[in-house]
Amino acid sequence: MTHVFHGVDEFRAAAGLDLGAGEWFTVTQDRIDGFADVTEDWQWIHVDPERAAASDMGTTVAHGYLTLSLVPRLSSALFTFEGVGRAINYGLDKVRFPSFVRPGDRIRARGRVAWTRDASAGGVLGCVHYSIEVEGRDTPACVVEALMVAFPPEA
Prior knowledge:
Helices cover 23% and strands 38% of the residues. With 155 residues, the chain is an alpha+beta fold. It has one domain (3-151): Thiol Ester Dehydrase, Chain A (Roll). Strands 2, 3, 5, 6, 7 and 8 form a 6-stranded antiparallel sheet that branches. A two-stranded parallel ribbon has the order 1-4. Strand 7 and strand 8 form a beta hairpin. The longest helix has 11 residues, at 29-39. It is elongated and about 55 Å long.
């Protein structure tokens, strides 16, 4: 169920809030290949199924940055804002890729508002800790501390 923050005050008060887990999303080889094309990173572990099959991995794997780039898509089911002027990405504090995502794997985001504090222009800066889970595995594919700022509506 999507959590709705009705204004910056609700977001400010959300430190520690467990946002739960989102819907499962399947990562395909076509998506992996498309990401390689966009980033011009055609390393064989991502795009050469034959060579990757002969390796210790046994298959191609998604680029870690592909997994990271899916955080907005995966987190869209966790929360949204209403009654704010805008909410913007501010950056990332920490990103790790503890395990691989393989073609056909299903992933989802699990989130928690780690902390919030006042920012400039009446905004609220918040850190959302995401764990990108891989169905059937204990180790997440990605853990990230994402920063965002929600601003009140302009008067």
